[in-house]
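We modelled the chain as a single entity of 242 amino acids. Its sequence is:
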Amino acid sequence: MAQIETAMVLAAGLGTRMRPLTDRIPKPLVTLGGRTLLDHVLDRLAAAGIGRAVVNVHHFADQIEAHLKTRAEPAITISDERGAILETGGGVLKALPVLGGSPFMVHNSDSVWTEGSRSNLRLLMEAWAPRRMDGLLLLARRDSSIGYDGRGDYHMDASGRLMRRSGSEETPYVFAGVSILKPQLFEGVTERAFSLVRTFDRAGAQNALHGVVLEGTWMHVGTPEALTEAESHLNEGQRRRA
């Protein structure tokens, strides 16, 4: 397994769709199952052996910084984006000097799931093959995800290579909010604010974008209603294990 040592956690979003919960707190500090969304992510990273996390902040940045001071692991570096909204790709681009020159993981702070028989982050790292990949995405099956009603994001061939959905077509897989990327994908980018999808497309244009389907159930917690649905799913799983 190719061990990834550093992860970027995207925690700078405004969380507008999660209002009114995010009127006074940032979305990463919304709780699910008794823990904040951000702690779910950081716990998962630490359990997978990733020793360092770079967390970007913008909306209610002081609250996130104060919360992170309560954690011992992984080791955390703040990427301060108070001055501007950089979107997902721009946030990673700004953090490249501290992310380093090796491939790194990018993890949305609101990406949650129930695990299958093993860690999905370890599953992702086991599949990472830098000789033939520039990017590797964690995917969820669209028809079995909770809180997601979109048309999907990607087709995947037998080798795991991804093709992005076009137009109004439907695809079997949705991006689950976690990826492994080479820093070289950001070379030559002049825009300050842009979506990470552009970086995925850049890898796809070289036939170097691949995917892994997660084991378990992915939950899209984009709204208060979806959060309630995810909470119910977690509670049901706990009752079954009791």
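As a brief sanity check on the tokenised model: The longest strand covers residues 173-181. The first helix runs from residue 37 to 47.
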